[in-house]
C-alpha cells in the first residue's frame, strides 16, 4: 500500500441506549441501527496501523460533544474531537470556552454542523452563521464542512471571507460517485481547493459509490480530482467508520485509499495518512 495509515481523521461512535441517531432511517441504513463503540473500532484500527483518530460529531445535540471529549480523555486512540455547538447562538465564544473546561476539553479540535441537512443552500452565508464561524476561528479551532455538491459554492464564498479559519471538507463534498458524474462537483471542489485555508478528507467515498459493486476504478476520478485540487499537504485520510460498513469493512476502506494513492511518493503518502491530519487538528 505504500506509506502506512497511522491517523484516521474521521470516524464516529454511538450508543443507541444514550440517544437515537435520528438520521438512521429507511431499510438501507438499518445495519447501522446498533451500538458502535471504541471497543469495536480499536482492534480494526490497530490492525491497519492506526494509532490516532479524530472522533467526529454525528447529531445536532449539545450533550454529544461533552461525551466525546470525556471519551477522548479515557482512550489512547482518540487524539482529537470535532464537536458541535450552535453557531447561530449569540454566545458561541462562551460555549466553546465552556467545552474546553470540561473533562477532555483540550481534545476539542474543531466544530461541525450538519449543513447537508439544511434546506437553504446558502446557510453558511447567513450573518449569524458567519458570526459563529468567526468565533470558531478566534478559538483556534477548525471547521468541518459536511455538505452536498450544490452547497459547495457557499463553502467557497465562506472560506474566502474567513481566511483565518481552516475549513476541512468532509467526504470530498459527497460527489455522485455511483452515477460517475464529475461536473459541476469537480469545478466547485477546484474552486474550494484554490483557497489556502481549505483541506479535504479522503473519506466517505465507498458510500457515495454503489454499495454492493463499487470498485477502485469508480473512486479514482474523484480521488484524483481532490488530489489535484488540494495536493497531499492538504489532503487527509478518514475511514468514516462505521458508516463505511454499509459498503466496505474498515480494512477495505484503508486498502482502497492506499491503492488510490499508490503512485505517489512515500513522503506524499505520509502527508495524506498522517501528517496533514496531525498538523490541521494539532494531534
From TrEMBL:
It comes from Streptomyces chiangmaiensis. This is Amidohydrolase family protein. Belongs to the metallo-dependent hydrolases superfamily. It comes from the Bacteria. Gene3D superfamilies: Metal-dependent hydrolases (3.20.20.140). Residues 7-283 form the Amidohydrolase-related domain. It holds the Pfam family Amidohydro_2.
Amino acid at each position: 500500500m505504500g506509506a502506512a495509515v497511522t491517523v484516521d481523521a474521521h470516524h464516529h461512535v454511538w450508543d443507541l441506549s444514550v440517544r437515537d441517531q435520528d438520521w438512521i432511517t429507511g431499510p438501507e441504513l438499518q445495519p447501522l441501527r446498533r451500538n458502535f463503540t471504541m471497543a469495536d473500532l480499536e482492534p480494526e484500527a490497530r490492525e491497519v496501523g492506526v494509532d490516532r483518530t479524530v472522533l467526529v460529531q454525528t447529531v445536532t445535540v449539545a450533550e454529544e460533544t461533552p461525551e466525546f471529549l470525556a471519551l477522548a480523555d479515557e482512550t489512547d486512540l482518540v487524539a482529537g474531537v470535532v464537536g458541535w455547538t450552535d453557531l447561530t447562538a449569540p454566545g458561541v465564544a462562551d460555549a466553546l470556552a465552556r467545552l474546553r473546561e470540561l473533562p477532555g476539553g483540550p481534545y476539542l479540535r474543531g466544530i461541525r454542523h450538519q449543513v447537508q441537512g439544511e434546506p437553504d443552500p446558502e446557510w453558511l452565508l447567513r450573518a449569524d452563521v458567519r458570526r459563529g464561524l468567526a468565533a470558531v476561528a478566534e478559538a483556534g479551532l477548525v471547521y468541518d464542512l459536511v455538505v452536498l455538491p450544490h452547497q459547495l459554492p457557499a463553502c467557497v464564498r465562506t472560506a474566502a471571507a474567513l481566511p483565518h479559519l481552516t475549513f476541512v471538507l468532509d467526504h470530498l463534498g459527497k460527489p455522485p460517485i455511483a452515477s460517475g458524474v464529475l461536473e459541476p462537483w469537480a469545478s466547485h471542489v477546484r474552486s474550494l481547493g484554490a483557497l489556502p485555508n481549505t483541506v479535504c478528507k479522503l473519506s466517505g467515498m465507498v458510500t457515495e459509490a454503489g454499495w454492493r459493486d463499487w470498485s477502485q476504478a469508480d473512486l479514482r476520478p474523484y480521488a484524483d480530482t481532490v488530489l489535484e485540487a488540494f495536493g497531499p499537504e492538504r489532503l487527509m485520510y478518514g475511514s468514516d467508520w462505521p458508516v463505511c460498513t454499509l459498503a466496505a469493512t474498515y480494512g477495505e476502506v484503508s486498502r482502497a485509499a492506499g491503492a488510490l494513492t499508490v503512485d505517489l511518493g512515500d513522503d506524499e503518502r505520509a502527508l495524506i495518512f498522517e501528517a496533514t491530519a496531525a498538523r490541521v487538528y494539532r494531534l
